[in-house]
Amino acid sequence: MKQLRTLREMLEYARTVGPMTVSVACAADPDVLEAVESSRRSGVAKAFLVGEADKIEEAARKASVDLRNFDVIDERGGEAEAALKAVELVSSGKAQILMKGMLHTDNFLRGVLNKEKGLRSGGVISHVYFHEVEGYDHIIFISDGAFIPYPDLATKAKIIDNVAKLARSFGIETPKVAVLAAVEVVNPDMPATLDAAALSQMNRRGQIKGCVVDGPFALDNAVSEISAKHKGISSEVAGKADILIVPNIESGNMLAKSIVYFAPNRTAGIVMGAKAPIVLTSRADTAESKMFSIAAAVVWAAYQKNK
Questions:
Q1: Which end of the chain is more exposed for a tag (fewer CB within 10 A), N or C?
Q2: Cα–Cα dist 194/200, whole Å
Q3: What is the pLDDT of residues 106-121, one digit of tens each?
C-alpha cells in the first residue's frame, strides 16, 4: 500500500478495509456518538453502545444520532461493569475495536486488564498520538504522551515497537524514529540522552527491528532538516522523523497538545499493545478527532488481520 500522508487519506483507506465493529464503553457522550455516527456514515465502523440505555438515548438526541443504526447494550451496573461488558464484546470476537466513552480511565482500564475477559497480550500497552500538521508532508507519531508516566529503557524499546507497527500499517515501510531529549548530544547528567543512545545502538544490533532509530535529538533537529544541517548532524533520521519518542509523559503530553492548540492540524490517537486496538481519547478532543481515531483503529486492526 502507499504511504498515508494525511488523516483524510487514512480515513479513505479505512473505508476500503472496513467497516469493523467498535464496542463503546459508557457511550452516553454526544461527541463520542457523533464520532461513531460519522464513522458509520463513512463506511468505516459499526458499533455496540454499552451503558445505561436512557442516558445513551439522551446523549443521542443532543447529537442528533439515530440509535436505530446501532446495537445498544443496556448495562446498569456502573462504570466498571459497563467497561467489562464492552471489553467482553471485543475479547469474544463480536467487535474488533474497544472505545472509551464517558467513564473514568481507571474503571476502563480495569476492564481491559481483566484476567478472564480482558485484552492483555503480554506486551507493553502504550498510547500513540498522531498528527497531520500544516507544513509537513507526512503524519508525525508521538509516544508515549498519555499512558506510561516514566518508561525505563526496556519499556521505551517496546513503545518504539508498538508505534513502529502502527506506522507500518499506515504504509511507512521503514519508519524513522527520533528519540527526543533536550539536546542532541549524549550527556551523562541527562538520563534521556543515555536512553536515546542505548536505543539507537539496540536498533543497530537488531534488538529493535522494522524501523531506523537514532538519538538523542532535540525536537528541532528531529523534524527540521535545516536545523539538523546547521548543527552538523548527519543521520538518516535527522530532520525526517516519522516517530518522536519522548522521555516521559509530561513532555509527550505537552508536545502533542502544543500541536493541537498552537498549529493548524488534525490529530488522533489510539492505544497499542493489547489484543485489539483501543480508542482512548480525551473529553476535550473534538468529534472529528475521535472519528479519525476510530479510523486509525480500523486500519491497524486490518493490518493485524492480514499479517
A1: C
A2: 10
A3: 899 899 998 888 898 8
Q: Which fold has domain 7-121+274-306?
A: Rossmann fold (3.40.50)
Considering only CA atoms, which of 151, 129, 128, 127 is closest in space to residue 259? 129
Grid coordinates standing for 136? 509537513
Q: Which residue has the cell 527520533?
A: 178
CATH class belonging to 126-262 = alpha beta
Q: How many CB atoms lie within 10 A of CB 205?
A: 8
Boundaries of every domain in the chain: 7-121+274-306, 126-262
3-class DSSP state of 72: strand
DSSP string, 188-222: TT-HHHHHHHHHHHHHHTTSS-SSEEEEEE-HHHH
End-to-end alpha-carbon separation of the chain, Å? 14
**pLDDT by residue (tens digit) across 204-247?**
999 999 999 999 999 999 999 999 999 999 899 999 999 999 99
Single pTM value for the model: 0.94
Number of neighbours of residue 230 by Cβ within 10 angstroms: 11
